[in-house]
Amino acid sequence: MKRFILPLFAAICLLLITQVTFAQDTTKTDPSLSGQYQFMLSKSKTLYGAKLINPARLSGLWKNVKDTINTERKQLVASKAKIKEQQKTITDLKAQIEGKESSLASSNAKLNEISFLGIPFTKSTYNSIVWTLIVVLALALAFVVVRSAKHIHEAKYRSTLYQEIADEYQAYKVKANDKEKKLARELQDERNKLEDYKSRER
Predict the structure, then answer these.
(1) Which residues contact residue 45 at a Cβ distance below 8 angstroms, ignoring those fewer than 6 apart?
(2) pTM listed for this prediction
(3) Which of 59, 103, 120, 148 is the most buried (most CB within 10 A)?
(4) What would the pLDDT profile of 138-149 be if each residue is shown by its tens digit?
Protein backbone atom coordinates (compact mmCIF):
# COMPACT_ATOMS: atom_id res chain seq x y z
CA MET A 1 0.00 0.00 0.00
CA LYS A 2 2.83 2.38 0.95
CA ARG A 3 4.45 1.52 -2.39
CA PHE A 4 1.51 2.97 -4.29
CA ILE A 5 0.97 6.03 -2.09
CA LEU A 6 4.46 7.43 -2.47
CA PRO A 7 4.57 7.32 -6.30
CA LEU A 8 0.98 8.63 -6.46
CA PHE A 9 1.85 11.52 -4.16
CA ALA A 10 4.96 12.27 -6.19
CA ALA A 11 2.91 12.22 -9.42
CA ILE A 12 0.30 14.59 -7.97
CA CYS A 13 3.02 16.97 -6.76
CA LEU A 14 4.68 16.84 -10.16
CA LEU A 15 1.38 17.51 -11.88
CA LEU A 16 0.65 20.48 -9.59
CA ILE A 17 4.13 21.89 -10.10
CA THR A 18 3.76 21.46 -13.87
CA GLN A 19 0.37 23.21 -13.91
CA VAL A 20 1.66 26.06 -11.76
CA THR A 21 4.72 26.36 -14.01
CA PHE A 22 2.46 26.25 -17.08
CA ALA A 23 0.19 28.89 -15.58
CA GLN A 24 3.20 31.07 -14.75
CA ASP A 25 4.62 30.54 -18.21
CA THR A 26 1.33 31.40 -19.91
CA THR A 27 1.05 34.61 -17.95
CA LYS A 28 4.32 35.70 -19.50
CA THR A 29 3.03 35.04 -23.01
CA ASP A 30 0.03 35.94 -25.14
CA PRO A 31 -3.07 34.84 -23.12
CA SER A 32 -5.07 34.06 -26.26
CA LEU A 33 -5.65 30.49 -27.43
CA SER A 34 -3.32 31.00 -30.35
CA GLY A 35 -0.63 32.39 -28.02
CA GLN A 36 -1.04 29.46 -25.62
CA TYR A 37 -0.83 27.01 -28.53
CA GLN A 38 2.34 28.62 -29.84
CA PHE A 39 3.81 28.67 -26.32
CA MET A 40 3.02 24.96 -25.91
CA LEU A 41 4.73 24.18 -29.21
CA SER A 42 7.75 26.27 -28.26
CA LYS A 43 8.11 24.41 -24.95
CA SER A 44 7.68 20.99 -26.56
CA LYS A 45 10.67 18.89 -27.53
CA THR A 46 11.13 17.45 -30.96
CA LEU A 47 12.00 13.78 -31.36
CA TYR A 48 12.48 12.25 -34.81
CA GLY A 49 10.49 15.10 -36.39
CA ALA A 50 7.58 14.73 -33.94
CA LYS A 51 6.65 17.08 -31.12
CA LEU A 52 6.56 15.68 -27.60
CA ILE A 53 3.81 17.65 -25.87
CA ASN A 54 3.51 17.87 -22.13
CA PRO A 55 0.10 16.38 -21.17
CA ALA A 56 -0.36 19.04 -18.47
CA ARG A 57 0.15 21.83 -21.00
CA LEU A 58 -2.20 20.08 -23.44
CA SER A 59 -4.83 19.63 -20.71
CA GLY A 60 -4.50 23.26 -19.72
CA LEU A 61 -4.91 24.37 -23.34
CA TRP A 62 -7.90 22.07 -23.78
CA LYS A 63 -9.49 23.44 -20.61
CA ASN A 64 -8.94 27.00 -21.83
CA VAL A 65 -10.41 26.05 -25.23
CA LYS A 66 -13.53 24.59 -23.54
CA ASP A 67 -13.85 27.62 -21.29
CA THR A 68 -13.53 29.94 -24.28
CA ILE A 69 -16.11 27.90 -26.25
CA ASN A 70 -18.50 27.91 -23.27
CA THR A 71 -18.04 31.65 -22.83
CA GLU A 72 -18.63 32.23 -26.54
CA ARG A 73 -21.73 30.03 -26.42
CA LYS A 74 -23.11 31.96 -23.45
CA GLN A 75 -22.39 35.22 -25.22
CA LEU A 76 -24.03 33.82 -28.38
CA VAL A 77 -27.15 32.79 -26.42
CA ALA A 78 -27.23 36.21 -24.73
CA SER A 79 -26.75 37.92 -28.10
CA LYS A 80 -29.53 35.84 -29.69
CA ALA A 81 -31.85 36.69 -26.78
CA LYS A 82 -30.94 40.38 -27.12
CA ILE A 83 -31.47 40.26 -30.90
CA LYS A 84 -34.84 38.55 -30.38
CA GLU A 85 -35.81 41.21 -27.84
CA GLN A 86 -34.67 43.98 -30.18
CA GLN A 87 -36.61 42.40 -33.06
CA LYS A 88 -39.71 42.33 -30.84
CA THR A 89 -39.09 45.97 -29.92
CA ILE A 90 -38.65 46.85 -33.62
CA THR A 91 -41.90 45.03 -34.47
CA ASP A 92 -43.73 46.90 -31.70
CA LEU A 93 -42.26 50.22 -32.86
CA LYS A 94 -43.26 49.47 -36.45
CA ALA A 95 -46.81 48.71 -35.30
CA GLN A 96 -46.88 51.95 -33.31
CA ILE A 97 -45.53 53.91 -36.30
CA GLU A 98 -48.14 52.36 -38.61
CA GLY A 99 -50.87 53.20 -36.10
CA LYS A 100 -49.62 56.78 -35.78
CA GLU A 101 -49.32 57.14 -39.55
CA SER A 102 -52.89 55.86 -39.94
CA SER A 103 -54.08 58.25 -37.24
CA LEU A 104 -52.15 61.11 -38.86
CA ALA A 105 -53.64 60.32 -42.27
CA SER A 106 -57.13 60.26 -40.73
CA SER A 107 -56.46 63.58 -38.95
CA ASN A 108 -55.15 65.15 -42.18
CA ALA A 109 -58.23 63.90 -44.03
CA LYS A 110 -60.49 65.47 -41.39
CA LEU A 111 -58.50 68.72 -41.45
CA ASN A 112 -58.67 68.78 -45.25
CA GLU A 113 -62.44 68.25 -45.26
CA ILE A 114 -65.11 70.97 -45.09
CA SER A 115 -68.82 70.30 -44.68
CA PHE A 116 -71.18 72.71 -46.45
CA LEU A 117 -74.95 72.16 -46.24
CA GLY A 118 -74.23 68.65 -44.96
CA ILE A 119 -72.13 67.82 -48.03
CA PRO A 120 -68.45 67.03 -47.33
CA PHE A 121 -65.86 68.68 -49.60
CA THR A 122 -62.11 68.71 -49.65
CA LYS A 123 -60.56 72.12 -49.10
CA SER A 124 -59.28 72.31 -52.67
CA THR A 125 -62.75 71.48 -54.09
CA TYR A 126 -64.42 73.93 -51.70
CA ASN A 127 -61.95 76.68 -52.65
CA SER A 128 -62.50 75.97 -56.35
CA ILE A 129 -66.30 76.21 -55.92
CA VAL A 130 -66.06 79.41 -53.86
CA TRP A 131 -63.70 81.12 -56.32
CA THR A 132 -65.87 80.02 -59.25
CA LEU A 133 -68.92 81.57 -57.56
CA ILE A 134 -66.96 84.75 -56.81
CA VAL A 135 -65.83 85.06 -60.43
CA VAL A 136 -69.36 84.40 -61.75
CA LEU A 137 -70.86 86.97 -59.35
CA ALA A 138 -68.14 89.49 -60.26
CA LEU A 139 -68.89 89.01 -63.97
CA ALA A 140 -72.64 89.35 -63.31
CA LEU A 141 -72.03 92.52 -61.29
CA ALA A 142 -69.82 93.94 -64.06
CA PHE A 143 -72.54 93.14 -66.62
CA VAL A 144 -75.20 94.83 -64.45
CA VAL A 145 -72.96 97.87 -63.89
CA VAL A 146 -72.27 98.21 -67.62
CA ARG A 147 -75.96 97.84 -68.47
CA SER A 148 -76.90 100.30 -65.71
CA ALA A 149 -74.31 102.79 -66.95
CA LYS A 150 -75.73 102.48 -70.46
CA HIS A 151 -79.28 103.03 -69.20
CA ILE A 152 -78.15 105.96 -67.05
CA HIS A 153 -76.45 107.53 -70.06
CA GLU A 154 -79.62 107.00 -72.13
CA ALA A 155 -81.75 108.48 -69.35
CA LYS A 156 -79.46 111.52 -69.09
CA TYR A 157 -79.63 111.99 -72.88
CA ARG A 158 -83.42 111.78 -72.90
CA SER A 159 -83.63 114.11 -69.88
CA THR A 160 -81.42 116.64 -71.65
CA LEU A 161 -83.50 116.29 -74.81
CA TYR A 162 -86.71 116.74 -72.82
CA GLN A 163 -85.26 119.84 -71.11
CA GLU A 164 -84.34 121.31 -74.49
CA ILE A 165 -87.83 120.66 -75.80
CA ALA A 166 -89.35 122.10 -72.62
CA ASP A 167 -87.16 125.21 -72.93
CA GLU A 168 -88.14 125.63 -76.60
CA TYR A 169 -91.82 125.18 -75.71
CA GLN A 170 -91.52 127.73 -72.89
CA ALA A 171 -89.83 130.18 -75.25
CA TYR A 172 -92.57 129.52 -77.82
CA LYS A 173 -95.25 130.14 -75.16
CA VAL A 174 -93.61 133.43 -74.21
CA LYS A 175 -93.40 134.51 -77.86
CA ALA A 176 -96.97 133.39 -78.49
CA ASN A 177 -98.18 135.29 -75.41
CA ASP A 178 -96.30 138.38 -76.50
CA LYS A 179 -97.71 138.05 -80.00
CA GLU A 180 -101.20 137.52 -78.59
CA LYS A 181 -100.88 140.63 -76.44
CA LYS A 182 -99.55 142.59 -79.40
CA LEU A 183 -102.45 141.41 -81.56
CA ALA A 184 -104.89 142.21 -78.73
CA ARG A 185 -103.48 145.72 -78.53
CA GLU A 186 -103.64 146.14 -82.28
CA LEU A 187 -107.22 144.86 -82.25
CA GLN A 188 -108.09 147.25 -79.46
CA ASP A 189 -106.53 150.09 -81.40
CA GLU A 190 -108.58 149.19 -84.44
CA ARG A 191 -111.70 149.01 -82.31
CA ASN A 192 -110.89 152.38 -80.86
CA LYS A 193 -110.39 153.80 -84.33
CA LEU A 194 -113.68 152.27 -85.44
CA GLU A 195 -115.46 153.80 -82.47
CA ASP A 196 -113.94 157.19 -83.25
CA TYR A 197 -115.00 156.92 -86.85
CA LYS A 198 -118.58 156.00 -85.87
CA SER A 199 -118.75 158.86 -83.43
CA ARG A 200 -117.67 161.31 -86.08
CA GLU A 201 -120.27 160.16 -88.51
CA ARG A 202 -123.02 160.91 -86.06
Answers:
(1) 51, 52
(2) 0.35
(3) 59
(4) 999 999 999 898
